[in-house]
Specification:
five-stranded antiparallel sheet, 135 residues, alpha+beta, globular, single chain
Amino acid sequence: MSHYATTPMLEIKGLEELSAALRHQGFEVEVHAEAVTLYDWHGWPRPERAHVVIRRQHTGSASSNDVGFLRGADGRVQAIISDYDSAKFGAAWQRALVKECGVQRAILRAARMGHRAVRTTDAKGRPRLEIVGRF
């Protein structure tokens, strides 16, 4: 049975931006109002629970465990990643995810204000947003 570690992801403000960022990275995700059980690579339930889940069959590795994100009572999000999966979903991946969450936060905020965000990439591969719409 794999050991799961939790990592605080303080820069992530909400589950909506997190799920949008994960989808942008190509993952199929589940979002739940109440935390749900995570499963290991055998399909057996783990004691860990999460609000946003990438199920093991959608991680890109045949012997992967579920990857989860739990929103705490204080609103902070924690990543719940097994030791095995930390090779793929390690610190570098988590930093990239936090950056993408920032981009998605801006896109979602623009949409709530009735604007549209046009996403492009600069010469160094960094995302750039142009907010267009009613002003």
